[in-house]
Amino acid sequence: IAGIALCWQGVVQRQVKKFLESSCSLPDFVERYRSLYLRLKNAMEELFGQQTAFVLALRHGFSAALLQLSILRAMHVSERFAQYIDQMIQASAAPSGGVETLQRLQQFLEPMLFLSGLELANTFEHFYRYYLGDRLLAQGNVWLESAVIDQIGSCFPSRFPQQMLKNLSESAELQQEFHLYRLQQLDRHLQEQDQVGRGRRAAGGAGPQPPSSFVLLLPQVMEDWVESEEEAEVQVLVLSPRCWAVSSGCFLDEPAKHFPAELCSYLNHFTQFYSHSQSMYSLSHSKPRRLQWTWLGHGELRLGGWTLHVSTLQMFILLHFNVRVQQLLQESGLSAAVLLHALQPLIADGGPLTCSSEEEPSAGKSSVLQLNQQVASRSLQGDPASLQLLPRQTYLNVDEDAAGTLERKRNFIYCLIVHIMKQEKEMHIDNLVFKVMDSCQKQEAARSPGGGRFGCSTGDVLSCIMHVINKGCVRRNDDNPHIVEFVPEDPATPQKGHAQFSFGRAGSRKDSVADTRCDP
């Protein structure tokens, strides 16, 4: 059986490799990949049943074919996989979606498990959390997201998606604690005011009057509490920057400049509560965390009888209509691409805003945004309705940006491994991982705050070590496989002493190979 299973593995590997080489750039590549898996799986069951040896051979055949992809092509494949899962999850939430969509998603998740343990899993996780973040912040189906992540959880070496879901549950608990905190604050102020009143009655009105701040304290607290009961429902999500991919361009430094006083008052109270909780529960030697507000998130606005589902940035735009686009750019401090992307659904046909200029806002930033009177009148006359205006995801440039970032990071790790091994000659693989991660952390600390993050996980380092071993720069000790040795430079064998890696630009169709020597 072992020999037949090995033969079957070779058949699977050749077919998958041929498919990846010929179909990788096709628009329906992922659907074809799913069909290929189903065809090979059905053939296996017809020929051999579901014996464990042949199931493992099917998996190893797929894994071996995926391992032969170049770095750049592997990034494109990973992004297409993450994009397909995103499309299926969003389609299942649409009225036309249903059992068929979920069935297709389930069929695709089965071969996704073949990424587990591969270097490709790190790249897939990188792209997956981009799409997952947008879905969760747009009030996606958390139950379905949890089910998908539970099934393919082994494809996430750093467990970032799991941590993102945990952040949401922790934020809900933190919201409850904040509500209790406000009740406790109100109760404490009431007790203080009651003690002041008792002291005045005991003194019979004689003696100095209590400070005016105590006299005015209760009305002010009661006023704040009444405002909090009347204000719109607000929920704050406290997200960890370690696992959420948040661009520095989305940071919101001063919410008071952009939003109504009632909302900003709530945010100020939450900031005080969070700072108080950090000072109480943080360790004495650790630095307390601070909140960094962002433009991410979503909200609901009422227009007549309609409910508008918008992003936080779109809510800011709707609260500032009758202004020029250029003024919005100046007030928000955002780039034109980010602001205009959020503006497009609002000025489209049937949107709540109109543009005074006939040209696109991107071409004429002096155009004025005005309320669409026809839409406003329909919202008052018609039946209550819900209007989805959230901007569509834009990952049109994610291939170039993310692929370039990952290539630079991996190239840095590759060269760092060779540099360390040239100095140490041989060392335990655990010590090598520690030294590489320590150097990466120092690199991160030396970067400017706006220069982007350069974090790396243990999985990143281990996958790069295996890649360098395969390239012949480093080898395992035959007697002690946990010891790695540097392969000295030998002119007769050009690959020794050189780190040869594949590089390529996302805009070019052919991968270019660069022979990069990593000298200390």
Automatic annotation (TrEMBL):
Residues 508-520 have a biased composition (Basic and acidic residues). It comes from the Eukaryota. Signal peptide: none annotated. Coiled coil: none annotated. Pfam families: Cullin_AB, Cullin_Nedd8. The keyword Transmembrane helix does not apply. Residues 488-520 are annotated as: Disordered. GO terms for biological process: protein ubiquitination; ubiquitin-dependent protein catabolic process. Pathway: Protein modification; protein ubiquitination. Keywords: Isopeptide bond, Ubl conjugation. Gene3D superfamilies: Cullin Repeats, Cullin, Chain C, Domain 2, Winged helix-like DNA-binding domain superfamily/Winged helix DNA-binding domain. GO terms for molecular function: ubiquitin protein ligase binding. Residues 76-347 form the Cullin family profile domain. InterPro entries: Cullin, Cullin-like_AB, Cullin_homology, Cullin_homology_sf, Cullin_neddylation_domain, WH-like_DNA-bd_sf, WH_DNA-bd_sf. SMART domains: Cullin_Nedd8. Belongs to the cullin family. This is Cullin family profile domain-containing protein. The lineage of its organism: Eukaryota, Metazoa, Chordata, Craniata, Vertebrata.
